Amino acid sequence: MIDVTTLTQLITQFRNTTQSNSVSPETVGSILQKITDILATAGTQANLDIINKWHEALKSAAPALTALSLGADDGDNVYLNTRSVNLYTGEQTELPPLAIRHASAERAGVMRAQQVIDLDNAKNDVSSIRVQIAVINKLLGIGTSDTLYKDAQISCQAIDGKLHILGAAKLISQGFVPYLFRNVRKRNPFKLKWATNEQKAKKHCPVKKGWAIMGSRYSVHINGDIVEFSTNPHSFYCCKAEGYTSSPSVLVSRHVRKDGTVSFGLGRSSVSLADPKNPAKERMVRITFGIGFAKPMNPGIASITPANLVSSLATFTIIYDPGSQAWAFSSR
């Protein structure tokens, strides 16, 4: 239905004019023209039907949000203030505060106050641990990110039957000492002085694989740039050396089995030199070792690992030649 208010006003005006006996063709024509203009701007019935259908459809439509703002909050929850409008009646309504879900390991969300406190405490603890690690590293002689490997790239090279180490002069002048490592699989006996009764039942420590120190700071010595090894039996490598030699054979303990075959110990393993395809002959064997520099540490004070080194780990190989039945150095 169209708005007839304007038409009613025109008709009322026309009636008043007639009663005063002042009607003229010009007046009638003017009023009729205004009525024509109003009717020309009015919608058709088809348009009105579309509007009515759309208006009826809004009855089943859900209210629409018109405003969203941050509301109250406490130590555990954060709320949002919301406002909606009924699309059919146009009525606006204040909705109950909307709580934002909390963050968890499975989903995103807002953090509780306690979670923020725990996070800050964890950050402070990490900072404290870093300071303590820096102090411990300094005591153990572990290189920092600024110095580790920057001026301490060392390498080994076999020349004329002897093992030479390159790039170690500066480390030696700074008071660092060499340590000997071998790549083994080992399981040390369990000997904890203050062990409980339950712990005393353990005979061995867990199995370890990788680079393990062989002996102590007394196992290897640098003479100029020539590497020399302790002549002590391997079981006394933690004691001061009675002497040093540049021969690679001291790195291997030779054992003769009851069947006459020769073997040597390597970590937990006993490696036979006999050729598996022909036990009457011996085979070529390669064993890899490594040398690295760290702060001087007396035996039993702390464990020395590649992580304690202030230099790179310079590797070298000793090779058993079954033809000459002797061991020789190799840089590879």
Would you kindly provide a written description of the structure presented here, covering whatever features stand out?
The strands form 5 sheets. A 5-stranded antiparallel β-sheet has the order 8-7-15-16-17, with no helix packed on it. Strands 1, 2, 3 and 4 form a 4-stranded antiparallel β-sheet that branches. A 3-stranded antiparallel β-sheet has the order 9-10-11, with no helix packed on it. It is α+β, with helices and mostly antiparallel strands and 332 residues long. Among the domains are: 5-42; 143-330, no CATH class. α1 packs antiparallel against α2 (25-41). Helix content is 25%, strand content 29%. A hairpin with a 5-residue loop joins β12 and β13 (262-266). The protein has helices spanning 5-19, 25-41, 45-57, 113-140, 169-173, 197-200; strands at residues 64-73, 78-85, 92-94, 98-99, 155-159, 162-166, 177-186, 208-213, 220-223, 226-230, 244-245, 254-256, 262-266, 269-272, 285-294, 314-321, 326-330.
